[in-house]
Amino acid sequence: MSDLLCGGTLAERTAAHGATSPEEMRRIIRTGAWTEPTAGLCRGHVQANMAILPADWAFEFLLFCQRNPKPCPVLDVTEPGSPEPRLVAPGADLRTDLPRYRVYRDGVLTEEPTDIRHLWRDDLVAFLLGCSFSFEGALLEAGVPVRHIEEGTNVPMYITNRPCVPAGRFAGPTVVSMRPVPNPLVPKAVLCTGRFPSVHGAPIHIGDPEALGIADVNRPDFGDPVPIRPGETPVFWACGVTPQAVVMASKPPFVITHSPGHMFLCNPRDADYAVF
Amino acid sequence: MSDLLCGGTLAERTAAHGATSPEEMRRIIRTGAWTEPTAGLCRGHVQANMAILPADWAFEFLLFCQRNPKPCPVLDVTEPGSPEPRLVAPGADLRTDLPRYRVYRDGVLTEEPTDIRHLWRDDLVAFLLGCSFSFEGALLEAGVPVRHIEEGTNVPMYITNRPCVPAGRFAGPTVVSMRPVPNPLVPKAVLCTGRFPSVHGAPIHIGDPEALGIADVNRPDFGDPVPIRPGETPVFWACGVTPQAVVMASKPPFVITHSPGHMFLCNPRDADYAVF
């Protein structure tokens, strides 16, 4: 496998690992041979957002996630001091098995390393949260086109006027992602993503962006704009950027996250999280 | 309303409050005028199991619930020191608004009061967990008979051979409840309870009790046995007794729970927790 890592474009190298198992891909990442985004790797398997916090912030953050399950769907939480996500990847090590990390001290980004063993502490708790890659697979399988994938850009994301339910020191607005859906396919888009409440679930809003406090749908707060064509409706899903924005706003003294797009590859398949 | 509280059998008095709002019923309970079980009150509204723990046990318990969502579906968690369940009943007071409580010290039941204001502390965190009353309503509406309701007895519950995923100091087996379902209605029973993942969701097992480690289905560990008639299959759902058994087994120094059957009446309707 490792010769596939050494040449070609990112798209070619990603395609070469579309069917690699999460266990094997994590092993490759651990060696330092893959430090790039994970979209398209280990297709069919769940990828996760990660946030690592000191234990004295962990209860409030877990409570925040529990109160806001659509933007913050919890997949796994480690025991304090343990870097092993025992539910979704027994034997994995969250200090080495993501391609790239971001380290924040008092809310300021200080480093973007590819390994965090030297930063690990006995009081750290890691949270793995669901990511929209899973439900985008469900959309594509159901025949619903996903515009930003067609365009090869990042999904457009918007800060809304809908506050999350606060918990302790954590509070902030819901962030949504948007996908334009051909009108006749909107019901299918609702049903096929609603099957996956662990990875953001059904949309939280369909249609008029202004109702969410979005002034200009062509100017997203994060990611890239995508065209909305005649006969399409903008459909909005709760987004995993929400917990990250909320954590940053509350400025814990020490936080480590995945670097955007550089997710953790979990053992379960997307289908394992379908509720019906 | 209050004259309805003073006479008649429990069944008659319960029927008189079948359509009372949760807000009004909590007010009646707060005055001490209702100290009896809550089954059948405020029909259509969610009722909750309660466990109150010291804050230094709260993260591990929330994590336990997150890892075992079928037996431990979290509806609300209070801020440390606050007795107000702000998600499911803003303005309510968990120290007075349940008809009867149980107090455990070092794992030993010491009191069964109807008010816990004198026991409240600034470090206590209250957890409200979903209860099977909600999905039994869904079964009845779907035309699936519920045997223990027909018989006027408590649902049979069994300790299984399926361990929960442990978290910190909390570990133990899954407890299940059983309802015999006529064979042609088993799919309907699965679908209509599967819509409610916040209140135990779909069954975890259908058929052979021995596969769950249940030696004799006619001798439940808790509750009362019910007849399984020819042409019926025993169907097993994860049960809210699970978290209580696990909490008791781990012997925190101080725990308060609802007294069995004396639940907290929440504002939301069962339908609010349907995912499709």
From TrEMBL, chains A, B:
Keyword Lyase listed: yes
UniProt keyword annotation of Lyase present: yes
Swiss-Prot/TrEMBL keywords: Lyase
Molecular function terms from GO: lyase activity
InterPro entries assigned to the protein according to its UniProt record, in alphabetical order: D-Glu_cyclase, Putative_hydro-lyase, UPF0317
Family: Belongs to the D-glutamate cyclase family.
Protein name as annotated: Hydro-lyase
